[in-house]
Amino acid sequence: MSWLPLSFGAPMVLWGLLALPVIWWLLRLTPPRPQTEVFPPLRILARVLRREETPQQSPWWLTLLRLLMAALVVMALAEPVFNPREKLPAEGAALALVVDNGWASAADWNKRVATAERLIADAGSNGVPVVIAFTAEKPNAEIGPFDASAALDHLRAAKPRPIPTDRPAVYARVAAALERLPGASVAVLADGLAAKGDEAAFKTLLEKNATRLVWATSDRPSVTGLIGADNQVDGFALTAIRAPGNPAPAQVTAGAFDDKGRRIADATLTFAPGEATATGTMAVPFELRNDFASIALDGEHQAGAVRVLDESSKRRRVGLLSQAEADQAQPLLSPLYYIRRALQPFADLVEPSSADLADAIPQLLDQKPAMIIMADVGTIPAQVKQRLVDWVDKGGTLVRFAGPRLAAAGNDDDLLPVRLRSGERALGGALSWTTPQAVTEFPKNGPFADLSPPSEVTVSRQVLAEPTPDIVERTWATLADGTPLVTGMKKDRGTLVLFHVTPEATWSNLPISGSFVEMLRRIVQLSRNQGAAIANAEATAASLAPYRMIGADGMLTPPSPDARPLVPGAGPLPVTLENPPGLYGSETGVFAHNLLDASSTFAPLVRPQVSLPVTAIPYAFDESENLKGPLVAIALLLMALDTLAVFWMGGLLARRPRRAGTAAATAAAVLVVLGGVFGHADLVRADDSKPGDAQAIEDISKTRIAYVITGEPGVDSISRAGLEGLTRFLIEKTALEPGPPAGVDIAKDELSFFPLIYWPIDATAPMPSQAAIARIDAYMQQGGTVLFDTRDQFSNGIGAGSASPATERLRDILGNLNVPPLEPVPSDHVLTKSFFILPEFPGRFNGSPLWVEASLDASNTENRPVRTGDGVSPIMITANDFAGAWAIDENGDPMLPTVPPDPMQRVYALRAGVNIMMYMLTGNYKSDQVHVPVLLERLGQ
Description:
This is DUF4159 domain-containing protein. The chain contains 25 helices and 38 strands. The protein is of the alpha/beta class. It has six domains: 98 residues, no CATH class; 147 residues, Rossmann fold; 150 residues; 208 residues, Class I glutamine amidotransferase (GATase) domain (Rossmann fold), CATH 3.40.50.880; 26 residues, no CATH class; 230 residues, Domain of unknown function DUF4159 (Rossmann fold). The strands form ten sheets. The chain has a seven-stranded mixed beta sheet, sandwiched between helices.
């Protein structure tokens, strides 16, 4: 029974409203008690004959109030619901709920969860079990059947995954579960995108034991994906896709981000009406494009709208050099023609303006290329040779092609990977072949290992390498007779490569083959600082550890526990829970594993054609509002008003004069005035506070950690952010809830309020005065502790016997203090176990010991914990930069990286801070625990 937008869960209770006239009649017959008035002249009243008078009936407003209260109670018992929703079909022997939680469901996941919650709630009201499965979870995930409460727990624990759905496998598991529950309703909450094998999957799910299908999906998939981000000659070319058939035009904005998450470029991509593909270009300079780490579509909070980039997406500047003059009439015979055509799609090519090698080579080196290609360059001038050698040693890649000039020039040991024989080998010569030689399988130790050997390539002429013990290791490509076609070697941090044929199609047809382009592309990858690591990993099929993952919402996150190393190989790699999209590798080199590839398309999911009854529902939040609670609250409020009205009518709330109170108040006012007139201010003065008392009360109301204000803004801001990070960690991990950190001026502020003062030593800060150092000395003697941090762990080791400026400044300060003997924290010291078990105390840096007051009997290791714990060390010294490791920004993210970049080092640094605070606050309590075994033994327990 319902009247929109209001319905009742128990409409029969509304018949109780018919009792309102009876209630009205009863209220009219039971008026309230008459009001009693006190009238002193009893003698007069005794003479007056009066009949007792009572009201004939209750006031109309009181009767109306009570009738309204009764009506509200009746309506509340009828379970009223405002804006009621339609009850979803969840009948049958069970409800099978199949939810897509792949990457395409991330944008409206909350709506899907709300829809599923309504289905489960209706199934619970019908008392049927629920089978719930998600299409992007592990194959062994539990699917039920559950009761409604357990099903809701599984639903709320689920989350969208940045991977495609696997409907065939999941639907088969649900169908197997329904074999024990025939006659079930099946609810499919799909993401709206079709996938391979959907038709067979739906047939498996619905053909046997299902009696009804509840279909929930979007009318048209609204997700947009990014399938291409290519670094081309004039800019970054982007390609986005959406589901076909959308008649409305659309524009999306793509943003490019560097490795620190800063937005550095934008581009707009436009979808024409009905089109499913949009393209755009980020026309930014070459150097800026090489800083791109990821590209994402604005407003698309899902993994398909993000592409991470690795070294293969960064263009390299390649210098081209040849001694042969270009023949404009015959460009195909130019030594650099095929090289230009092969490299132009993925490299920026530069050439010198001078034909003289003495000028051309410096011109190329001045443009800082990653790779230089020399086409048949013979002898390199001596005045520029050393500069070219230095460029290779520092990381450059030099690729040389053979030819008559190189064959006649002899050996150049510094700039060739192998020694060459004089002359060249050709058909018809002394070392000739009877037939041109083909290329065999590429060696496994080279960058071409995963390429197929080009069967159409033959070689009729080449320069030969001298046989040496390491010739096999330096060979990247060989001919059928075993002679090298391409050789290469590492030279310091650079690479030398030699093609034993010419770059034009005279000695071999390799330059006009497709393999030539791929071979040059691999060498360009090797020319990068990190490209070598990834190329070698691909060549040897080594596994790459997860580094940064793309979350379901499109944000880059640390790897999850489910992520496993990725094994790169030929062809597209599948995106799974074990290998989610993201970056794999390490800081020395990463491999981009993206969700969508260039061939990806979106197709809308079509509802299966089945003979079962089908109910289509939209994704929506439950906007119904149960009015039972508000109605009961209003009824209780009316009941309170009724009670007050009865009291008022009975005279209990009548106002009576309070003369004694008034007289007392008047007397107090007179005294105040007289005291002010005659100078007796002591009668009314209650505040005897002094300046600074409020700050002192604030300082001692909560435990606070202090830091010394050095006067250097950068140092002081890091100190405060570091202590704020430690304070937050203490609140999260311990029962201690410190107040906000306090900055103190050691020359003026009171120091005794703080158990620990953190003092970052900075050589550029002013030297404290003798009076200030004396106050620190008194603070330490009275039980306080100062933690000195020179923050120079990586500066002290430069030069034997040298010390950093911060260490020198610390020595000057300590020279004026009464410093006890110090020692590094022993392994059995209370500090190592006051809260966490810690073998060392790292900060932003690692390696410096934490110095504390030496034990009284340092040689007696058995007594050390007791004797050192008898008091707290008044001084601690480190060089590990504790505040730098603890420091957090407004969002709670670390401000400074650790050195080395180990995430656990920051955790250990925070734990070290907790141990120091526990040691400061508990004193010998922790160390006294060593007596417990002895006491128990003496007690015979």
